[in-house]
Every structure is written in structure tokens, then in C-alpha cells.
From TrEMBL:
The gene is GFM2. Belongs to the TRAFAC class translation factor GTPase superfamily. Classic translation factor GTPase family. EF-G/EF-2 subfamily. This is Ribosome-releasing factor 2, mitochondrial. It holds the Pfam family EFG_III. Mitochondrial GTPase that mediates the disassembly of ribosomes from messenger RNA at the termination of mitochondrial protein biosynthesis. Acts in collaboration with MRRF. GTP hydrolysis follows the ribosome disassembly and probably occurs on the ribosome large subunit. Not involved in the GTP-dependent ribosomal translocation step during translation elongation. GTP binds at residues 15-22, 79-83, 133-136. It is found in: Mitochondrion. It catalyses: GTP + H2O = GDP + phosphate + H(+). It comes from the Eukaryota.
Length: 715
């Protein structure tokens, strides 16, 4: 059942929202023999979109993991969402992938979301291959799409295929490496039937010339990037590139892809069932196996178990199912494991291979594999799992020794965690109420389960009203959480109006002094602190703590953590709107602490003093500024621009993408509530848009005072 690591491929499919990712996945599963019929997103019967909301909306939200075999290789495929509200899902999956397939719409090239996902893959250093999908669509252009990969992604495309025809005339592809044409049988309904023929001077003179030129250019490109291959080309085959064996070229392309100096490009049409089989061949040929990826932390574990829980799903019958990627060692059912992040020991009862909704039980999970575990009740997304606490400590000591040997500063030595997922700050929030007070515990339970699955969903209690507040990444995100609570937990909840998550900062410095003097039992707690709040130029979500020379070093050593806790808690609720305070530095000028004073009292005094200082300073509200990209036909450009001007939008540029115009600009989040409906009406449903958080920017005085009077009027 289990494969050798060299035969495993852990890959993800990533793309813009409508590039055809899920359809591509469906075709791959069909040709690998895992599904008996072809699913279609528009019919709502795809394998990887298995949540009801995904099937209804035709978008992928959760990253379904599917395992299949292809020509002696085991492929673990993760289907990731392309909607900007769910970028955390993508980020989380890139952690566990060894390679990725980036799917592009051949008529649109690189779109806004493709760029975001590509940057995330760069950050995790994931080798990629590109698939230009929808070659059969009107307006599809291979040349344009390749150009946009080169310009917008700053990547070097290696053309391994050329299309035979474009748009309505698209009928197959040319394999540039082997100089063969692949034609799909028009009478075959499912695209399983295709023939591979060598290109001959007699039958295809024009295509052969084009392919030979493309192959020579490919050889030169790869030789520029790979010294070993360059030696081979300049030596044996310098006279005639045609004699160079395809296998030698493929090995060199594999090395270049791994080094991420270039990306292989293939093309096809998933919906018309063309070009998918060669794409899966390319995955097994060019993308790395787990052995070929170098993870720095592995050497500290020395073959002991080290795994990452990268997704939690809730199954009605089995309870929480945790998707785990094993990096080293072996995971077995009925064994106890230690969760470093949660600092707890749990028992795994069963291991299952995921096939979207169906699961096959397995006896063990070895390095490089991905599977579902049953029985982990405490583990949440992003947790690191090892065999025991002592194994974690031994790894920590090895890491510490290595750092000392390299004279690097020791940091986090007690726990060499796999880097957890960076969770973006939510930009929207709204209140959520159960149908009756008696159902509040059920709502709390549902939200707790959903938070374990999705760390970008934050839930907090409003201290003043006692209401539960949902904080999410966008309108769609909150809508889908609301929907899931209804479907999966049978709760008809009520959402309050969506509100924007503002931030606050200060624009002038202010000093404050505070004394806290309390006697609890027979202990006297006495703290006096003097500090100054100042604005900082760089963007910093947490307050920057500084200490002047006059603060005693011994006192600081004993109470620094308590002081910093006080600073952080004071900055959670600002003086204007009760929003988090950012871009602030707090300098502690003097601190006197009576012997025996508890650290909690120090935190409380510092916190109160910071709030005093913030109230004295000149305050400023920061609002989330979104980067907006609207794709619209030329006829509707004017109404779209006029509407954006009313929304306080600033247009950066208007690009031409074949027949469409792409408007790129920035607009405050508060102004884009419900924008999709307005845009649909303005353009008769022909435009699309993508949004992502760009930064927080200061509001102008008029807008700020209007917002404050609205808020105080609404209270």
C-alpha cells in the first residue's frame, strides 16, 4: 500500500478563482482510475469540492486531499482554493507540498489571485510547473499567456509543449522534448483515447520546423541554467541538437525545476479532456519527491518521528480527522504521540488514506506520505507532532548545539517547531446570535470546531454587550461559516451587520504616570510606572517596547515579561473605537516595584498607564485599504471608473488584456461592502474583480469624524 519516498509526489494545484483548477483535478482522478465518471464544477458533482457550499457556488474552499497512483508513482494531490478570502487554506497546503501545478486561463494569463498564490509558493520555495488551461476558449492565446508568466511572475518559462490550433481549432499538443504530436480522438467522449505520433517532414513540415526551433531554444535555455547539461551539450552534441536524447534533456529540466530557476510550461483544455495525461506525466517526471526537498529541521530529529498536522476536518461519525504530513520516522495506529505546539500527548487510533469523502485504512505512515489520523482530539491546524516529549527535547538540544557552533543567537531552542502557518489578521467582523439562549452552548461548540479547522476565523466575546463576535477574512468567508453552522450543526443563527476591522494609532507622543497600590490579604502590591507612547514610522502590529537607561537591569530581568504583557493588553483596545492600536512604541522611563508585588499587578499598572498615555496623545484611525483589480470589457469601463471614484478609490493603472480592460487601484474596505452585486448590475454580469488587503492607511479628518459620530450615534 505504501510507496518508497522516491516514488511519492506531494503536489498542489493552485490558481486564480476561475482558471479551471477543480476541473483539472477531476480529469486527473478520472484518468488515474479513481473515479468512474467525469465530474463537472458547473453540475456540482466534483470529487474534491465535497462541501455543499462548494458545489453550490462552484468554488473550492477547503483543500481536499486525494491520493492516487500513476505509472508506479503515488501522488498525493491537494486541491487549493483560489478565492482571496481563503488564502490561508492555500498557505497551509503549501507547507506540506513538495511541488505544485499552477493552472492559468490561457485567455487571461496571470490574474490577480494567481500572483498572490505564486508569491506564497515563492515564500515556501515550492518548485512549480505551469499548465495553460482553456486553450479551447475564445480568445485563448498561448503566446500571450506565456508572455504574462514571463513579465508578471518574473519567471523563466520552459516551453515543453506547443498547442496545435487555438480556441475553436485547438485539437492537441506537440511534445517539444520528443518532437511528437499528441492528438485526441474527436469521437472519444472522455479524452482517454489519444495518439502520439512522431512529427515528420512529409506530413507536418511547418509544425516540425516550429517544434525544432522550440526544442533548440529549450536546450539553450536549460544549458544556460544547468552547468552539467551545458557540458553535455557543448561536448557531444554541439553539432546537432537533434541527436540529444530526450531522457538527458528531461533529467536536466528536472534539476532546473528543483532549483526553481525556471518553470516548465504545458497546455491543454481540462473541460475538453485534452492535455491532462501528459500533465500528470510531467508531475512525476519534473516535480520533486520528498527526498529531494531539503527541510532544515529534519536533521535535528535524526530519523525520529516528525509530522505536521496541516488540516482538521470534522466528520460526523469519527469526530475530528487530522490531515498529517510525515517528514521523518513512521506513524502507526494505536500509538501515543506528543504534540509540541499544544504540549500534550494523544493517541492515534486509526490511519486512513484520503480519497475526498472516502477513506482506506492503512497499517503505517512512512516519511513523505500524507494521511488522515483518527483519535487526535486536541490537535489543531499547524501543530507539530513527534514521538515523545523526550524526542522533542533531544531535537531541541541538537538544534541549540548547532546554533552555538555557528555562533548564531539562540532562539526558541526549547521547541524546534515546524514553522506554523502565518495567520493573517481578519478584516471583517459581525455579531452572531443563536436562535435562543438555550442554544448558546451548541453555537460555542460549533464555533470551537470551526476554529480548529480554520485558524483564520477568530471568535471573541464583546465585553460590553456579551455578544459573540465572528472575525473573518471577507464577506464570503463569514457567509460560508454562517452557512456551515446551519447545515452541519443544525443551528439557525442570526448575523449582525458586517463591520470593518479598523485600527488605531497615535500621531504625537504623550507621557503618563500611574501608581497601583493594593493590599491583598497580608501582601502589599505597589507599582509606580512612568512611560511615554510615541508613533513609530514602520508598520508594526504589536507595540514596540523600549526601556530607558534609568530602569534597573535586575528589576527589568524579573518583570520584563509582565511589562510586555501589560503593553500588549493595553493596545488591544484603543481609545477611539476600541480597535487594536498599532505602529506605537512605548518607552518605560521609570519603574519602582515594592518587594513581593505580583507580576499580574505590574501588568495591570503598566496597562492602565499606557491607556492614559494613548488618551492624551493625538489619535488617528487607520482603515484597511484593499488592492482591487477589476476586469471589464471596454464598453463598461466608464461606469466602473465613475463608481470607483464615488467609493474613494484611487486608480493606479488601466491595462489592456486582449479585448478587456483591467483596472488596478486601491479602495478602502468600508467602501467595497456588497461590491460584487453593484458590479454585476453595472456591467450586466460581464465583469469580475479580485480584492486583497494591501495595508492600513490613515483616514482623512472628515471621514474620521463622520465615522466617529456614526459609531457614537449608533451606540
Amino acid at each position: 500500500m505504501l510507496q518508497l519516498p522516491s516514488r511519492i509526489r506531494n503536489i498542489g494545484i493552485m490558481a486564480h478563482i476561475d482558471a479551471g483548477k477543480t476541473t483539472t483535478t477531476e480529469r486527473i482522478l478520472y484518468y488515474s482510475g479513481y473515479t468512474r465518471s467525469l465530474g463537472d464544477v458547473d453540475d456540482g458533482d466534483t470529487v474534491t469540492d465535497f462541501m455543499a457550499q462548494e458545489r453550490e457556488r462552484g468554488i473550492t474552499i477547503q483543500s481536499a486531499a486525494v491520493t492516487f497512483d500513476w505509472k508506479g508513482h503515488r501522488v498525493n494531490l491537494i486541491d487549493t482554493p483560489g478565492h482571496v478570502d481563503f488564502t490561508l487554506e492555500v498557505e497551509r497546503c503549501l507547507r506540506v507540498l513538495d511541488g505544485a501545478v499552477a493552472v492559468f486561463d490561457a485567455s487571461a494569463g496571470v490574474e490577480a489571485q494567481s500572483l498572490t498564490v505564486w508569491r506564497q509558493a515563492d515564500k515556501h520555495r515550492v518548485p512549480r510547473i505551469c499548465f495553460l488551461n482553456k486553450m479551447d476558449k475564445t480568445g485563448a492565446s498561448f503566446k500571450y499567456a506565456v508572455g504574462s508568466i514571463r513579465e508578471k511572475l518574473n519567471a523563466r518559462p520552459l516551453l515543453l509543449q506547443l498547442p496545435i490550433g487555438e480556441a475553436k481549432t485547438f485539437r492537441g499538443v506537440v511534445d517539444v522534448v520528443r518532437k511528437e504530436k499528441l492528438l485526441w480522438n474527436p469521437s472519444s467522449a472522455d479524452g482517454r483515447d489519444f495518439e502520439r505520433k512522431p512529427l515528420l517532414e512529409t506530413s507536418d513540415p511547418e509544425l516540425l520546423r516550429e517544434t525544432t526551433a522550440a526544442r533548440n531554444a529549450l536546450i539553450e535555455q536549460v544549458a544556460d541554467l544547468d552547468d552539467e547539461f551545458a557540458g553535455l551539450v557543448l561536448g557531444e552534441f554541439s553539432e546537432d541538437f537533434d541527436l540529444l536524447p530526450a531522457e538527458k534533456l528531461q533529467t536536466a529540466i528536472h534539476r532546473v525545476t528543483l532549483a526553481q530557476t525556471a518553470v516548465p510550461v504545458l497546455c491543454g483544455s481540462a473541460l475538453r479532456n485534452k492535455g491532462i495525461q501528459p500533465l500528470v506525466d510531467a508531475v512525476t517526471m519534473y516535480l520533486p519527491s520528498p527526498e529531494e526537498r531539503n527541510y532544515e529541521f529534519l536533521r535535528w530529529y535524526e530519523g525520529d518521528l516528525c509530522a505536521l498536522a496541516f488540516k482538521v476536518l470534522h466528520d460526523k461519525h469519527r469526530g475530528p480527522l487530522v490531515l498529517v504530513r510525515v517528514y521523518s520516522g513512521t506513524l502507526k495506529p494505536q500509538s501515543a504521540v506528543h504534540n509540541i505546539s499544544g504540549n500534550c500527548t494523544e493517541r492515534i487510533s486509526r490511519l486512513l488514506l484520503p480519497f475526498a469523502d472516502q477513506h482506506i485504512e492503512i497499517p503505517a505512515l512512512t516519511a513523505g506520505n500524507i494521511a488522515l489520523t483518527v483519535g487526535l482530539k486536541q490537535t489543531a491546524t499547524g501543530d507539530t507532532i513527534v514521538s515523545s516529549k523526550s524526542s522533542a527535547l533531544a531535537a531541541a538540544r541538537r538544534a541549540e548545539r548547532e546554533r552555538e557552533g555557528q555562533h548564531r543567537p539562540a532562539g526558541g531552542a526549547e521547541r524546534p517547531l515546524l514553522a506554523g502557518v502565518e495567520i493573517p489578521e481578519p478584516v471583517f467582523f459581525c455579531t452572531i446570535e443563536p436562535p435562543s439562549v438555550a442554544r448558546q452552548p451548541d453555537l460555542d461548540h460549533a464555533l470551537q470546531c470551526l476554529q480548529r479547522e480554520d485558524p483564520s476565523l477568530k471568535v471573541r466575546l464583546d465585553p460590553e454587550s456579551g455578544q459573540t463576535v465572528l472575525c473573518g477574512m471577507g464577506e464570503l468567508h463569514i457567509e460560508i461559516i454562517h452557512d456551515r453552522i446551519r447545515r452541519e450543526y443544525g443551528l439557525e443563527t442570526f448575523l449582525g451587520p458586517l463591520q470593518v476591522a479598523y485600527r488605531e494609532t497615535i500621531v504625537s507622543a504623550a507621557r503618563a504616570t500611574d501608581t497601583l497600590d493594593k493590599t491583598v490579604g497580608d501582601r502589599r502590591h505597589l507599582v509606580t510606572v512612568e512611560l511615554e507612547a510615541q508613533p513609530v514610522g514602520t508598520s508594526s502590529a504589536a507595540p514596540v517596547a523600549r526601556f530607558s537607561e534609568s530602569v534597573s537591569k535586575d528589576l527589568l530581568r524579573a518583570s520584563q515579561e509582565a511589562i510586555e504583557n501589560g503593553l500588549h493588553s493595553a493596545c488591544l483596545q484603543g481609545p477611539l473605537l476600541g480597535s487594536p492600536v498599532q505602529d506605537v512604541a512605548i518607552t518605560v522611563h521609570s519603574l519602582t516595584v515594592h518587594p513581593g508585588t505580583s507580576t499580574t499587578m505590574i501588568s495591570a499598572c503598566v496597562s492602565r498607564c499606557v491607556q492614559k498615555a494613548l488618551k492624551k496623545a493625538d489619535k488617528q484611525i487607520l482603515e484597511p485599504l484593499m488592492k482591487l483589480e477589476v476586469t471589464v470589457t471596454g464598453d463598461y469601463l466608464s461606469p466602473v471608473l465613475a463608481d470607483l471614484a464615488q467609493r474613494r478609490g484611487s486608480i493606479q493603472e488601466i491595462q489592456t488584456r486582449q479585448d478587456n480592460r483591467v483596472v488596478i487601484g486601491f479602495v478602502p474596505l468600508a467602501e467595497v461592502m456588497g461590491y460584487s452585486t453593484v458590479l454585476r448590475t453595472l456591467t450586466s454580469g460581464s465583469a469580475s474583480f479580485a480584492l486583497e488587503l494591501s495595508s492600513y492607511q490613515a483616514m482623512n479628518p472628515q471621514d474620521q469624524s463622520a465615522l466617529l459620530s456614526r459609531k457614537s450615534g449608533g451606540l
